[in-house]
Amino acid sequence: MPPQMTGAQMLWESLIREGVDVVFGYPGGSIMPVYDALLDYPQVRHVLTRHEQGAAHAADAYARTLRDQGKVGVAMATSGPGATNLTTGIANAFMDSSPVVFITGQVSAEYLGTDAFQEIDVTGISLPITKHNFLVTRAEDIPRVVREAFHIARTGRPGPVLIDLCKNAQNDTAPFVWPTEVRLPGYRPPQRADEDALAEATRLLAEAQRPVILAGQGVLMSGAMPELRALAEKADIPVAMTLLGLGALPLEHHLALGMMGMHGEYFVNMAIQHADLLIALGMRFDDRVTGKLEAYAPQARKIHVEVDPAEIGKNVPVDVALLGDLKTVLRQWLPRVAEARRPAWREQIAAWRADTQEHDVVHKTRRNGKGPLRGPEVIQRLWETTAGQDVIIATGVGQHQMWAAQYYRFPQPYRLVTSGGLGTMGFGLPAGVGAAVAHPDKEVWVIEGDGGFQMTQAEMATAVQEGLNIKIVVLNNNYLGMVRQWQELFYDRRYSAVLLHNPDFVKLADAHGIPARRVTERREVDAAFAFARQHQGPVLLEFRVPPEDNVFPMVTTSDPLHEMIRRPEEEPHVERSDWAGAAP
Amino acid sequence: MAMPHTFVVLVENKPGVLNRVASLFRRRNYNIHSLNVGTTQDPRVSRMTLVVNTTPEKAPLIEANLYKLVNVIDVQDVTDRPAVRRELALIKVRARQGMRTEIINLASVFRANIVDATPETMTIEVTGTPEKIDSLIEMLGAADVVEVVRTGVLAMTRGTIEGARHLPGAGGR
Predict the structure, then answer these.
(1) How confident is the model at residue B97 (pLDDT cuts 50, 70, 90)?
(2) A6 φ, ψ to 5°?
């Protein structure tokens, strides 16, 4: 006889069977039975965030940084406002293909559709931002639904799955039967590539003189780093990475180019634009990566290796599609790939790279030793300080994010947690919470801007309550920097609603019991990092950086990828008075 | 160039599945020309016939996106395949004395039936390809047609006994 349990108990029993030991969440009326039953499952750690969005981002980051262990993030909230507060985080996980299961309380089934207190159509709202969702009205359905939700979230192209759990289903008692298999007749993600397509891809590669691999987050999601490396080395192919693909190949590898796209380095984009073959691995030719589509890699034939058939030909027409799990497909393909050496192509790229380094902002600043401390320099110094130590970087969205992507030289996969597709400001701190919970043995550095940090700064309290080893870096320029940059470049410097009168971030941290320091000078940087690292637990460092600094290089959305705004020859003009005094 | 594409979609017979399909078309900005849903020989499976105005380049993406829905069991683009396509229409026309014979004659040319008649109107039931129904409506004349209702196309591929194909959307190209 299967044991009788309440639906709430079944939920925890099911989550534990799916390997869940951490849940990020926020209780409320319609999910109280689940929170009551939680007390009887001490093996599950519940992290109480200060806002449901924080729980969603934390679960997202938890899943991304533990992808190699097959973990799925779990975030939980009540019905109505709890669920709607999750939605930004759900959308973020959806756009970045992050395996997260969201569980929301819902009013009892008998009240569905009556506009009851805190009743909102959550499966309706989340339909276009989840991989799949479930409305559960009966306790006995819970084990099957949980099993299916986790299976869908973690397999194929990963993504968020939402379970909306009616209160009566949480309270009712039924036999607990854990399903022995998942039966989803319509869910069959492709696994192995078609033989004919493989033969065609092999032919295109054999004919190529100037191939480039475009490595996306799919490499990390599939755990295909060794296969990527083997392919690149065997056929001597340089590897450009998307923002979310950073870490797929260590940046120090001789074939690693770095980030491509809008703020990618000059030589990376030049390589793509001059390539005669692009091998896209688990990336989706996002507009931030291609620039003007009509002029994208005009000489290149394209091989697209993807697990999601709906990505094939969506933005860029491709010559061959290899549909399947990336790791599996590369293992199929590798034995057929001929060894090759391409010295001329590598020399050409090296020349572009040398030209890029000549323009490098940090290189110049350091050579001069003058001018104000700038954002990129802070990141570069952080990288030098933490090099060789396994730290995780979580960022928000904007200028600081792009500087982090450009100047932190990611040596490993799963060490950059950032919001790519949705571009969610304020992602950094809650993502840091998730990463720190996932990796208590590692230092987690949150890099945020002053704008984004204030969107989710409440999670400082979570970091303190949970004793998380999070080091928060706020690059404070008293502006919404990226929007200001666009206004400068494309709106004739008409600054509209971008100036921020900020709180005193050091005092704010202090109010949370978080040690903090403000840094305004270059000579203070190393001591500040040392200060942060000698304190176990959360620390905040505020870096005052020039208000009108820009992220370069930059490709505007209407330009071809190789027509970049390069880094300026001169240091940016900085008037200290208009920023040093802006904060209290 | 955009032209009508016909998709046969087998879905799990569960609540909300129609909403998922409709939501997908709205979200991806695909324009549904007609959508028909009904039961099949298997009570667990419903069958949709979707006609979408789209280009040959975009059609595989629609197929792939439909296939991505977890409740969608199979998708076939039958546009270029030999298939039986049928639509049913009810057409109510003005039918005063002196016009009735002509309407009855026209209906019989189109193998249509008169299923209702009043002193003012007659209602014609016609089955056939969309083109055939278009022609009948045209022949009846805009001034005389009072009301038209059409089911949208039902489609079934000819001959093969395997029926539904089991390959992921775009990969089946």
Answers:
(1) confident
(2) -75, 160
Identify the structural domains of chain B with CATH numbers, from first to last: 3-79 (3.30.70.260), 84-150 (3.30.70.1150)
Question: In A50-192, at which residue ranges do the beta strands (DSSP E only) sit?
Answer: 73-77, 100-106, 132-136, 161-166, 173-175
Superfamily of domain A359-559+569-580: Thiamin diphosphate (ThDP)-binding fold, Pyr/PP domains (3.40.50.970)
Rounded Cα gap, residues A173 and A142, in angstroms? 11
- Fold classification of A195-351 (topology level): Rossmann fold (3.40.50)
Determine if the peptide bond prior to A515 is cis (ω within 30°): no
Q: Which residues of chain B lie closer than 8 angstroms to A189, CB-CB?
A: 168
Does any CB of chain B come closer than 8 Å to the CB of residue A500?
no
- The amino acid occupying position A141 is D
Q: Which amino acid is at A58?
A: A
Residue A217 sits at φ, ψ, to 5 deg, of -65, -20
> Quick check: bond before A553 cis, omega within 30?
yes
Interface confidence, given as ipTM, is: 0.89
- Determine, for residues A188 and B166 on separate chains, whether the beta-carbon distance falls below 8 Å: yes
Strands B121-128 and B145-150: unpaired
CA distance B136 to chain A (A): 39
Main-chain phi, psi angles of B30, to 5 degrees:
-95, 140
Nearest CA in chain A to B23: A128
Whether A251 has its CB under 8 Å from any CB of chain B: the answer is no
What is the per-residue pLDDT across B9-50, written as a single tens digit (0 to 9) for each? 999 999 999 999 999 999 998 889 999 999 999 999 999 999
H-run or E-run covering A148 = helix A142-154
d(Cα A81, Cα A481) in Å, to the nearest integer? Answer: 31
Q: Cβ separation of A309 and B73 shorter than 8 Å?
A: no
Q: Is A335 exposed, middle or buried (0-12, 13-18, 19+ CB in 10 A)?
A: exposed
Task: Catalogue the active-site residues of A.
Answer: 52, 117-118, 167, 482
Task: Compare CB distances from A186 to B12, B65, B170 and report the shortest one's residue.
Answer: B12
Mean pLDDT in residue range A222-250:
98
Q: B-chain residues within 8 Å CB-CB of A135?
A: 16
Give the tens place of pLDDT for each residue, A14-65.
Answer: 999 999 999 999 999 999 999 999 999 999 999 999 999 999 999 999 999 9
What does the alpha-carbon distance between residue A308 and residue B169 come to, in Å, rounded to a whole number?
A: 10
| Domains A4-175 and A359-559+569-580 equal at CATH topology level | yes
Top CATH class, A4-175: alpha beta
Q: Is A132 on the interface with B (CB under 8 A)?
A: yes
Contact assessment for residue B6 and residue B51, using Cβ atoms and an 8 Å cutoff? yes
